[in-house]
User: What shape does this take?
Amino acid sequence: MVTNAVCPSFYFLGGKMIRLTDTTLMHIRISEALQTKDVLSFCRLLLRVGVEYVQMPTAMYSLLLSDKSFYDEVNKGLDSTAKEGKTLPTIVLHLELEEQKRAYPEIHNFVCRFCKNSDDAMITCEHQMNDIREVNRLQSESKRPCSRITGLDDILLRNYESVFAQIQTYLGKNYEFCPQNSYGLATAAAVEWANAGGSRLVTAFGGIGNTAATEEVIMALRINFRFHPNHDYSILPVMKVLFERLSGTGFPARKPVLGSAIFAVEAGIHADGISKAPYTYEPFIPESVGKARSLVVGKHSGSKAIEIKLHDLGIAIPEKAIPELLIKVQEASVLLGRSLSDEEFVQLVKTR
Amino acid sequence: MKERRYIVDTTLRDGEQSPGIAFSVSEKVKLAGILESTGVYQIEAGIPALGGSECEAIAEIVRCRNTALISAWNRLSLDDISKSFACRPDIIHISLPVSYVQLYVKLRKNKKWLLRTAVECVNYAREHGFRVTVGYEDASRADIGFLITLSEQLAAFGVEQIRYADTVGVLFPSRARDNIRTLLSHSAIPIEFHAHNDLGMAVANSILAMKGGARYCDCTLLGIGERAGNCCLSSLLQAADSTYDFGISRRKANVAEEQLRSLLAENIE
Assistant: This one.
């Protein structure tokens, strides 16, 4: 069910809050085709799934200011950590140079890679690290109010728990981690960071920009750390559509959490298990992420799957005819090199 | 020197279970040949209980292979296992539903039944001259104490390898590593780790499971498999080839994935 309520926006991990910053908008190309309303809708949905901060380049921010609702919300001072009345995540502006900050007095959060001023609590200094040996240079950053570590793509291949502890020794707790995904390990690194005591994560929807995928991190934190926020994840498919429109890219059918085929089931053993209790073969219920389960029949179907499919299609046949129909389904599937559509299945039933 | 780890490829079993995919006999045999050429240690060729063309394919894969071990997947059932015999695989793999939800809700059985039936099935396969490996289905949601007890008892009946399956893909890396370590600290049976990618962590979980001592790692070409898929072979090699010696050519693995991609065309993307 989609609700309008803005829910608590932090993930609790053993009583500790996890703050998520989403950087999707850093990777959206600004063009004439880009619809401001789509960007704002996407941002509002980010807040609904628990993302408290959204990072964007100054050009995107300037574009969004042309929208009155965005302009009003930012200038009413709602761009803060106060939750009351918020419809947008807190804005984090990405600056090329920290001096650019002066042009945005209404904004309180910035990220900049080239920081000289170590005292400015509004500016998070981003450190790109491609090797864990570079962590040692963070010793000189200990006085900076807030830092972000971006990279460490292969940290899970190393003794990452020691590295996380070392970083915390140097930077204290006010630092962010933005794991990058060159080895396909970013989501896992983000989850391990939280597990090791980190409290601020930087992600992007679908993992765009070589980062951890926001939706994967959210679901992993929810499932593994038993935090059940009242967030409405059934809006994820709407976010996916908006994202695809904004980015011009789509997702594979098996993309974790978002893919169109992740709740399709064919194997007999799975169909049987799910018919008894869905959680036998599902990590979370499809409806919780705005999806629906679907049963397809094919080479790997069993009698139970055939029974269920017949029932779903409102077709009654004698029980003793099911084994023979199952063999026909399996043979047809092998011939076609794929599962059967409902129409093909009905045709087989008619010609049995 | 890199530590040796072994790839068990399950493209032809768990991969093919991905809805929308159905290989013919000739496709399975061809894919097995491609997999063998990459250097995978073991190929899980299919499920003999499906009968017909599946048995034909597995038998032909066994006949054509050179170096890779060929295994056949079985439910905990004497009938299923007897169908495997005709395929003459090197290894008969028997899957044990070990979580309470699998055991009590799906099968409506209990632990005592599970152990008794497992021993019966293992003995049956071994008496017919087959090597036996056992899979702990849904191990990541099972009581680790129960798994330890099972391993201790199965070791006495000649089980050579235990597959620890994160069937619904809910593990995270350090938990995968710790669970494998715990199992290995109580039982000497080598562990094979089987990941699913529901939370986007199949590769990471597999790597940390190997860090925890898992000697074998299950993969599929292109990561095909149930729901969000399994651990993708090329992704695993990209991430961990510098850490472990898998005995596999990355280039050949990439070529194998391209060949599968062509075969499946639009079905998987």
